[in-house]
Specification:
The structure holds 2 protein chains of 2 kinds. By secondary structure, chain A is an alpha/beta fold. Chain A has 23 helices and 30 strands. In chain A, α3 packs parallel to α20. Chain A is globular, with a radius of gyration of 24 Å. Chain A starts with a strand and ends with a strand. Chain B is an alpha/beta fold. Classes of the chains: A alpha/beta, B alpha/beta.
Chain lengths: 676, 331
């Protein structure tokens, strides 16, 4: 039995474990790394089963090309030539901006960097994006404006030092279980816990206060807390004076947000808002933890601004045990953003629109680069549906299941002249492709991943990929070659040299330094020890900027025709579109079928019983799922996880986008239910 | 038989064993995890330290284990045993007790052939005495191994507990009996953990732990299943079939009674349908049901579940809380 240390492929926590393999090159299990600072000998259920999908018979083993309407095996040379020819042809005919590149938060930093380079330098477009658009684009936009950096400000070790944890819109024990466990440990040693979530999540059982505010009313709640803090004089005046700007605008903006007014919007009692404000503001060290409940709204950026305002108002920034802590979803969603798999920035958030920056990359890559920022992935879908986009290369993403309003996504992808997908399974998106390339999975290639606490860590190759499947970086190198760009990288470590040379925050990252616990960026030079906490003396942008926000209701609230609110999310046992976890025996067995959570009161109203099939409809479509009667959801709300292709929650969801971050309103739309 | 080995003798013994067996020895892996790994003669041995990370019984009952291959004609092929049997070195008293527990379960009729393919002929080498972290004392074995090496200052007392073990040790020098007596004396003061388990077990058998207790413990569970997966006496598995065209591979994989689907029936009904019932089962099974069935705890007090539980509700932690709440002196 061989044991190889690597980074977990699931969430952004950054756990490390040993993949156990036998002498025939097959994985036999997982063992948590005992001394790693994040995993500490522990894993969640997905981590313990992370080996299980790798050897699944349905893994893609050869390139597939669509002939006579069917995907048929082909060889790599033919596949890569076709891919390059088609992309070049479309770029020549319709312009480079008629192409779209979707990168992936599941592939390494090196692979994200190469795809970003390929799109910009190879095919001449800034149309590159990835699924951070659907999860934390609101964070990146909001926190860059207020602090100058869109990343989690503190480290996971800070949970050991905090006095209060305020969790808003994060089902932490299910979605970041090893972070959720740190919150529970903090509670055990006496820290206070405030939970704001409409659902009775596990953390709420341990909370000093559980605020079940209406989905989409976060701005009102946070503004209300700040109103009360100012009313009580509990703001941190020294911090505000020394470290922030625009305070008077914030004060002015909060005037209307009295507890009574906020209570009407949120559905809470005024006393709950006052109590939350006082508990938060009277703690010397408070951490705010948030995730999709904050970001996935048509006002997601405003939600993030409100969170930032609350932290600045109370001086909870730049110290251990404090901070604004957005929990990143995928194991490399932080890294995919860092590497510039975004339409407006190169690696290290260096702006495409800045002529000096463009010149730097242009010189390094020996090619002229496009000036206009590209399309966001959600806008790209709209553009494709409108016939403005003609070719798309998707690397390890599954927008048919993960994007809002599936009918629109299918229409958009169907209209493309050419769709190519690189993936490990024939996902619902790959099934629509003209060309499918088989990729190596995390256990079959080297690379680095950046966790939610900005920890850059190694992923290590343990076994060979199945059949003819290749590592994504090798596929991308072959395309760089066809574009006439540098393509002599022999290993991901060499790609990291190039990344470090062009990316200030990764300047000191080198494989030789990643053998231990990894390094937390910013790590600007080879002697720098990394940065566990951001904004220590001053914020990345200088002063912390108060950015006042007003409450805007969600775009589609329940009405007479569609009387219930649909909330979507995930379960503890499945990962996103299920392509890996539904092929992992234990995880699949635990949640095999789509379900819908219905409050007991609503079950009586609609005369629905446990496990009964329901037809759930929104203005965009209908699905069928089995009822789970539970008070986890409040009356008037139903919850559906989006993992299940056969009952995809995103058939129903609203593709109304945040005007700044382009994130869809996954957490609120109006639906009706019918027993059947 | 009592022998005494210095470091050179130990290396010689391991080299001899590795000729006949697939020898696994304690090593520190990349991040400092202490775990059994294949003996190469070159990698540094970790002769003192924490409890081995992966339970050694995983060599006999691994997380994924192929049971058989079935072809389209219905022919069944069973995996062949490896050419050389396994030898596991570095097992503490709890590791050995865990293997003895599993042996009894899997050897009971009908004997489990997949387990025996790995287990038969395997050599178990205990490492006890001053071999804990910072050379602290580890309990002596119950003699349930082939060879026991008892660490004393800069050498090891070697006991042959089986004929295979005695044969391997025969050419080494005689051991110092007074040192062994001293070690046995130390061994007498190490029963604290089993006292705690005994008290907890009694509370369960007398049904003095209310449902509310289990609800509170279960509220802290984040359903990782780690407590089961690391437990050396847990033997539950589920069966996975993978169809690769001509061949269907049937394997078994470690299961966990903490999962809802573990007992869920096809109708959807679940006799263990709440986290609280499943948490109670985990503890009750080891401290009450196993006592009734086997006459001993199903917990060997290795400490692995307490170490791997992200929220501090491993066996010892729960037993302690139970005794604190409902033990002697409580109403």
């Amino acid at each position: 039995m061989n044991a190889t240390l690597t980074t977990c492929p699931y969430c952004g926590t950054g756990c490390n474990f040993y993949l156990l393999s036998d002498d025939r090159g097959r994985l036999s299990g997982v063992e948590p790394a005992a001394k790693h600072p994040v995993s500490r000998g522990q894993l969640c259920i997905k981590g313990w089963n992370a080996h299980a999908f790798v050897d699944h018979p349905k893994r893609l083993k050869t390139p597939l090309i669509r002939k006579n309407g069917k995907l048929q095996p082909t060889d790599w040379q033919t596949a890569l030539d076709l891919l390059h020819d088609k992309l070049s042809e479309i770029a020549a005919k319709e312009g480079p901006d008629s192409l779209m590149f979707l990168s992936s938060a599941k592939v390494s930093n090196e692979e994200n960097y190469l795809l970003m380079k390929l799109a910009r330098a190879g095919y001449g477009t800034n149309n590159i994006d990835h699924c951070a658009r659907l999860c934390h684009s609101s964070t990146v936009t909001g926190l860059v404006e207020t602090l100058g950096s869109g990343a989690m400000t503190n480290s996971l070790s800070c949970f050991e030092e905090t006095e209060l944890v305020f969790v808003i819109g994060s089902n932490t024990t299910e979605q970041h279980p090893l972070i959720g466990s740190r919150i529970l440990q903090a509670v055990q040693r006496g820290a206070k816990l405030l939970v704001a979530d409409s659902r009775k999540i596990r953390l709420s059982r341990h909370a000093d206060l559980h605020l079940r505010h209406q989905n989409g009313s976060d701005v009102a709640l946070l503004n209300g807390m700040m109103w009360q803090i100012l009313q009580d004089g509990l703001e941190n005046r020294a911090f505000i004076a020394q470290r922030t700007e625009n305070f008077s605008a914030l004060q002015h903006s909060l005037k209307a947000f009295t507890p009574d007014y906020v209570a009407r919007i949120t559905g809470l009692q005024p006393g709950q808002i006052i109590a939350a404000a006082r508990q938060f503001a009277t703690s010397d060290r408070a951490m705010i933890v948030y995730a999709m409940g904050i970001t996935q709204h048509s006002h997601g950026v405003d939600n993030v601004r409100a969170i930032s305002n609350l932290a600045l108002l109370t001086g909870n920034l730049g110290r251990p045990g404090t901070g604004i802590n957005p929990l990143r979803g995928q194991n490399n969603v932080q890294g995919a953003c860092d590497m510039g798999a975004l339409p407006d920035v190169y690696s290290g958030y260096q702006k495409v629109s800045d002529p000096q920056i463009r010149e730097k990359f242009s010189t390094a890559w020996s090619v002229k680069l496009p000036e206009t920022p590209g399309r966001m992935s959600t806008h790209a879908i709209e553009a494709a549906a409108g016939g403005e986009l003609h070719g798309m290369l998707v690397l390890g993403e599954n927008p048919v299941i993960s994007d809002a309003n599936q009918a629109l996504v299918r229409q958009a992808l169907g209209k493309l002249e050419f769709l190519a997908v690189i993936d490990i399974f024939l996902t619902e998106t790959a099934q629509l492709a003209d060309l499918v390339l088989p990729a190596a999975c995390y256990a079959e290639r080297d690379g680095t991943f950046t966790s939610t606490e900005r920890r850059v860590q190694r992923g290590r190759k343990v076994i060979e990929p199945p059949g003819d499947a290749r590592a994504d970086w090798q596929i991308l190198v072959a395309l760089l070659h066809r574009c006439g760009l540098k393509n002599d990288y022999t290993a991901p470590a060499e790609i990291m040299h190039e990344i470090a040379s062009l990316t200030p925050s990764y300047g000191g990252i080198d494989y030789s330094r990643l053998e231990g616990d990894g390094l937390q960026w910013p790590c600007p030079d080879p002697a720098h020890p990394g940065s566990p906490i951001l904004h220590l003396e001053e914020c990345a942008r200088g002063k912390g900027h108060f950015s006042p926000v007003d409450y805007r209701p969600p775009g589609e609230l329940p009405d007479a025709e569609y009387p219930l609110l649909l909330n979507t999310g995930r379960t503890a046992f499945h990962w996103h579109t299920g392509s890996m976890t539904r092929r992992s025996h234990l995880l699949d067995r635990e949640e095999r079928h789509a379900f819908v959570e219905v409050n007991p009161e609503d079950a009586i109203t609609y005369q629905i019983s446990e496990r009964q099939q329901l037809k759930i409809s929104s203005r965009r479509g209908s699905i069928y799922a089995a009822t789970r009667v539970t008070d986890r959801v409040p009356s008037g709300q139903i919850f559906i996880p989006f993992h299940f292709a056969e009952a995809a929650a995103n058939v129903l969801t609203n593709n109304l986008l945040d005007p700044e971050s382009g994130i869809p309103e996954f957490k609120v739309c109006a639906v009706r239910i019918e027993p059947c | 038989m009592l022998k005494q080995l210095n470091r050179a003798d130990l290396d010689l013994l391991l080299t001899q064993i590795s000729d006949e067996y697939r020898l696994q020895v304690p090593q520190l892996l990349a991040d400092g995890t202490r775990q059994l790994a294949g003996y190469t003669g070159e990698a540094e041995l970790s002769l003192t330290g924490e409890v081995l990370q992966r339970k050694p019984s995983a060599f006999f009952f691994p997380q994924t284990q192929r049971l058989l291959d079935i072809d389209t004609a219905g022919a069944v092929a069973v995996p062949q045993p490896a050419e050389k049997p396994l030898a596991l070195f570095g097992l503490n008293q709890a590791d050995l007790a865990g293997i003895r527990f599993l042996d009894r379960f899997f050897r009971a009729a009908p004997a489990d052939d997949a387990y025996l393919r790995q287990r038969n002929g395997a050599l178990l080498i205990g490492l006890t005495g001053m071999a804990g972290p910072d050379n602290c004392f580890l309990s002596l074995s119950a003699g349930d191994c082939d060879i026991e090496l008892v660490a004393v200052k800069e050498s090891w007392l070697a006991l042959g507990h089986s004929s295979d073990g005695e044969k391997l040790l025969q050419n080494f020098p005689e051991g110092d009996k007074t040192q062994l007596v001293r070690m046995r004396h130390l061994n007498e003061g190490t029963a604290a953990e089993s006292d705690l388990l005994q008290q907890a077990s009694q509370l369960l058998i007398e049904d003095r732990v209310p449902d509310q207790f289990w609800m509170e413990i279960a509220d802290r569970c984040i359903l990782c299943s780690g407590c089961n997966l690391v437990c050396p006496t847990c033997s539950c598995f589920c069966v996975q079939d993978r169809n690769r065209g001509e061949i269907t591979e049937r394997s078994r994989v470690w299961d966990s009674c903490q999962l809802d689907a573990f007992m869920r029936e096809a109708s959807g009904h679940n006799p263990l349908g709440t986290d609280a019932l499943r948490t109670r089962r985990r503890i009750h099974h080891k401290l009450a049901a196993d006592v009734e069935r086997w006459g001993e705890f199903g917990c060997v007090a290795c400490g692995r579940c307490d170490r791997t539980c992200p929220t501090g509700i491993g066996m010892m932690a729960v037993a302690e809380e139970m005794v604190k709440c409902f033990g002697p002196g409580k109403p």
